[in-house]
Amino acid sequence: VLAALGGLTLSLNLLKFTWKCCCGFRQYVLSSLCQANLRAYGQWAVVTGATSGIGKAYATELARRGLDVVLIGRSDERLQKVAKKIENKYGRKTHTIKVDFTEGSSIYQTIAHELHDLQIGILVNNVGMICNDRFAYFLETPDPGKKITDIINCNILSVPQMTRLILPRMVLRGKGLIINISSEMGLRPHPLVALYSATKIFVINFSQCLQAEYKSEGITVQPPGLASFLGETLYWLNHLVSTALKHSTSFQKNQISDLMYCWHVGGCLSHALQSVAFSILVPDWLRMSTFFIRWLRKSLIRIEEKNGSVFSKQKVLEE
Ligand SMILES: NC(=O)c1ccc[n+]([C@@H]2O[C@H](COP(=O)([O-])OP(=O)(O)OC[C@H]3O[C@@H](n4cnc5c(N)ncnc54)[C@H](OP(=O)(O)O)[C@@H]3O)[C@@H](O)[C@H]2O)c1
To answer: Which residue's CA is the nearest one to ligand 1's atom 47?
Structure first.
């Protein structure tokens, strides 16, 4: 009996391993070989937080793949700059909407009005902010009363609000793609970035439930994990450094290709491997322990004090 049980367990594990390898092949190899026709979803893509970083990269890649793009951000000047670049380089139409997502529910009427006549096939809920520019205890959040509301309005509220504006017409047309940008920090709880980490798990859970509810209506909802431990750590050590590190065009291309092949996107192969390695090297019990949190906080302060110049904005700009 024991031998039979052992054989069965081994076979099941082998089957699971083979299945994961096939998924990995489909996601990281096949997806880069055959690109899906994104224009088939509809004429327009909407990207929130489209003036820099990941949002800008998505907007540019979607335009390259044949879609007209609605760019949403809070600076007219930066929006026009990105719009002009996309129009000149890819010959696609653009439309810009200037709003500040920290203002809460009052802005969505304006957005609804601006999007009214457009056939939107793809929505990228990218806008997001951090609450502190370094790893810190919750009580160290500067101006916490305002910051808590701002981050919840920006990272959480924007996702279902934008979705409820755009999803109904996608459902009517029987097709649509919604990409909700989450984070490695949302895949597991991360002390010292508590508020941010909590906002990102909201995005993952909301996306998974939405996907289950609407996949039969022809809608795909994806929460890319963006699982770059290195990138995210630097994101918190110094926002600008990580902006320079993580936004390679190939990363974005990979991610958009991956979308067609896998329900959960790890960003790209190296990010997915980093995520697996991180979960093995720093298991949950260790990451959540007081000892580890204190050690991490002290070490990061020491690194920042010592290598301030390495992570300085000036140095990144020079590079
Ligand atoms: N960076 C990483 O390593 C990393 C890793 C995982 C996940 N993420 C997630 O990816 C998303 C984008 O991150 P990123 O690093 O690309 O950020 P980023 O470079 O700071 O860009 C953020 C974008 O959002 C806009 N934005 C910020 N606050 C806004 C507000 N209140 N109202 C309107 N627009 C606003 C910014 O516009 P302005 O021009 O007005 O500033 C900018 O276009 C976020 O959701 C973040 O949590 C990032």
So the answer is: 128
